[in-house]
Structures are given as structure tokens and as C-alpha cells.
Amino acid sequence: MANSEQQTSYQSSQRYKPIQHRKAVYQTNWQIKRRINRLFMILFALIGAHTLAMVWLEELSLFNALWLTLTTLTTVGYGDLSAATPAGKIATIGLLYITGITLLTLIVSDYIDYRFFKRELIRTGKWRWNMINHILIINSPRNHTTEYYIRLVSQIRAHALYRSTPIQILTDQFPGGLPTELAELGVVHYHGSSDNPGDLRAVNVHAAKHIVILARDENSAISDSATFDVLHRLMEHKLADKAIVECVRDENRERLKRLGAQAIIRPVRSYPEILVRAILAPGSEKILEDLFSHEQDHPTRYDVKISGLTWAEIVCALIQAGLGTAMAYVDEDKEVICHPKHDERIDAHALIVLVKADLEPAETEIQEAIRHYRQRKQNWDRQKQALEREADIEH
């Protein structure tokens, strides 16, 4: 009975006894580099020791001794020089055949491991690139992320000044690596979060040329809070003036503006050109934003027929009348001609005019402005002809 209880107690203790797991052995990036550096130092010491041994034991010159050491270590073995004395042969066996070649093999093996490790870090977005003068994009759109990035980066790359500019994305997406079509555009990513100061340091935010902060969700005003937090961090390091930020709710624009953002735009996912313009031509994004809304300046079509005037004269006529700015016209084939040459004679069937929402002119006002300009132009022409005739009479 006692033996049975002891056996049961032993089985129970074995069942619940903690299992001693072997510790996982791995090397980080810096550990591999440190090991390679240490191996190189030992190898150089062996090369120096064998070179001196050949000078002393084989009575070779310093150059010939080094030549013999390197050809032996690299297994080239030209055969023009070799150790002849027993002591020299023993030194070569111990220092090079056994120790030196083994060290060289370990260095090559560790270097290959380092390359594979680096490639894996790059693929998973954990490699620190130490970029300077780069475009840093923080956060990712919630939907159609890859398609948006491809369109955005493609439009940036279309500009000659930014064709080869490094572009890095700080995002918690793409844990398995960037899509091939995006990587082919010269984009890299760091897998992290914009609310982590360490991740911001990892992408060299202080050395970026432009910083773009995207709204995490273009349909939720909560995204503005996250944007505000990131911009505030940049402001603390005097980097806010490099930032182009997206703002979902217009009421939050003033708060972001007080932090010193370079530009504040609405998140228009179907038209990344607004963001691109903010990078390439700061200030022009405001014009494009107004065109997308009906709140301030917006384009309006006026079905008025105009002929016999140049495009410059039409633009002057509307501006002098305070009605707006002519942007394009519609010809007789119903084609919209944008920004024609200033001296081109226009045969228009309609005008596209940029007007203010609170001062939108009527079609009759446009016609009246053109008619008044024609009259003034005729008066100018008559005065000019009269002056020319007087000059001819005097001569």
C-alpha cells in the first residue's frame, strides 16, 4: 500500500514538474556585425603573426612574407613561395591551415547570415535606412491602401525634381512586406506606429525634406486627434513647418494651423494630386481644394459667345469688371480648351470662369463686361490711330 502511494506521488510530481526548455539561440543585427568585426581583428592578428614568422623563420622579405601569407590564406597557392624549414611549416599549419582558413570561413558564413538577416528586416519593415532629404509618409489609408500609394508615388515621381528622391512610409500595414508594384517605385517602409516616438526616430523624421501625415480614416473625425498628436510631436522638435497634414473636419483646421503645419488639406483619396501639389508647389493645394468645394472660389460655366478677342483680352475684361478669372473656354466642337495662349484669337461658345461663391455673377454681367471691353478697346484703337496720324503730319 505504501509502495503504491509512493509510486503515485512520484508520477504526480513528474507530471507537474516544470519542463526545462532550451533557450532559443539567435543573433540580432548588431550582434552579427560585432562578431564579424571581432573575427576580422583576430584574422588580421594571425596574418601579422604569420608574416613575421616567415620573416624570422624563412628569412623572407616583409613583402614576400605577406605575399606567402595571403596566397596561402586565400587558398590560391601560386607555388612561387613556400615555407621550407620545419618551424616555418609548423607555423603555417597552425596559424593558417587550421586557424586562419577556419576564421575566414566563419567570416563568410556570418556575412551571408547578415545579408539574409538584413533582407528579412527590409521585407518586414524593421530596417533602419538612415535617410536624409527624403519624403516621409506617416499612416496609411484605411481602404485601397496599395492603389492609393501607387497613384500618389507615381505622381510624385513624374516630377523631375523628385524622380529619385527617397520615399519612406511609416505604417502598421504591410507586415509581410510591400507589394511588388509599390516597391518597384523606389518606396520602402518601416513597420511601426506614428504615436511611438521610437518609430519616428527610426524613420529619421528630423532629416526628412517633406513630412506627410495622412488621416487614418478619411471618414472619421477621430483621425484628426491622431494627426494632432503626431503634429504636436513634430512641433516640439521644430519640424511642424515641414508637415503636410490631412484634416477630416474643417473645424479642426485652426488647431492644426496653430501648431505650424505647412499645409492642411482634406483627405481626397480619389485625387492625390492635391497632396502632390502641396509638396511640389506649396500653396497651390488651396486652389485645388476650392475647386472641389462650392464654399469659396469655384468654376462656373457661362454660355456666352465671344469672337474677335484674344484670350488675354477676355481675361482682362472679366478681372477689370471684378467678375472672376477665365480658366477655359468651349469651342464650336464642344471641346474644353484650358489655359490657351495669351495672344490666341478666341471663338468661344462658352466660358469657364473661377468665381466667388458670395459674388457669383449672372450670365448677362459676363456679356456686359465683354461688351464694355470691346468699346474701350475700340476707343483705344481710335486714339492710337489719331496719335499716329498726328505724328506723321509733324514729320
UniProtKB/TrEMBL annotation:
Its main location: membrane. Residues 131-227 form the RCK N-terminal domain. Keywords: Membrane, Transmembrane, Transmembrane helix. It is found in: Cell membrane. Pfam families: Ion_trans_2 (PF07885), Slo-like_RCK (PF22614). It is a multi-pass membrane protein. Residues 41-113 form the Potassium channel domain. The chain crosses the membrane at residues 39-57, 90-112. One of its GO terms (biological process) is potassium ion transport. GO terms for cellular component: plasma membrane. InterPro entries: K_chnl_dom, NAD(P)-bd_dom_sf, RCK_N, Trk_Ktr_HKT_K-transport. This is Ion transport 2 domain-containing protein. It comes from Oleiphilus messinensis.
